Amino acid sequence: MGRLTKDMTRLCEDIQTLRADRQELKKKLAEGTKARQVEILETCAAYTDARVWKAEGARNSRQSFVDNLKQVVAGQVRDTRDDLAMARRSWGKLRQA
């Protein structure tokens, strides 16, 4: 074989090697991309779970506050009603006297 033939053979082998390397690199990039997609989906799911947990906690807290507020207001209404009833009785006794 002549020098030109050897150079062409070497160049052809180099091209094949580079193509194989490029295919391997593309394969690794694709695998890495899929792995990152899975990690991102898992992270998003974790954020969603945390947000739902936090929202439920906030809702329970608000509901507890409202329930307590209802009890406090009901107690104040009862106290006011009792005070008014006592005032009416007192005014009634003063008028009779």
Could you characterize the architecture of this molecule?
This protein is mainly α. The protein is 97% helix and 0% strand. It has one helix at 3-96.
Give a topology summary.
Blueprint (H helix, E strand, L loop, with lengths): L2 H94 L1
What's the helix-strand series? H
Biggest beta sheet attributes: none
Mean pLDDT: 94
Number of strands: 0
Radius of gyration: 41 Å
Helix content: over 70%
Broad structural category: mainly alpha
Overall shape: it is: rod-shaped
Number of domains: 1
User: For the terminal residues, how far apart are their CA atoms?
Assistant: 140 Å
What low-confidence regions span 5 or more consecutive residues with pLDDT below 50? none
Count, helices? 1
In short:
The chain is mainly alpha-helical and 97 residues long. It is built from one helix and no strands.
Task: Provide keyphrases for this structure.
97 residues; mainly alpha; 97% helix; rod-shaped
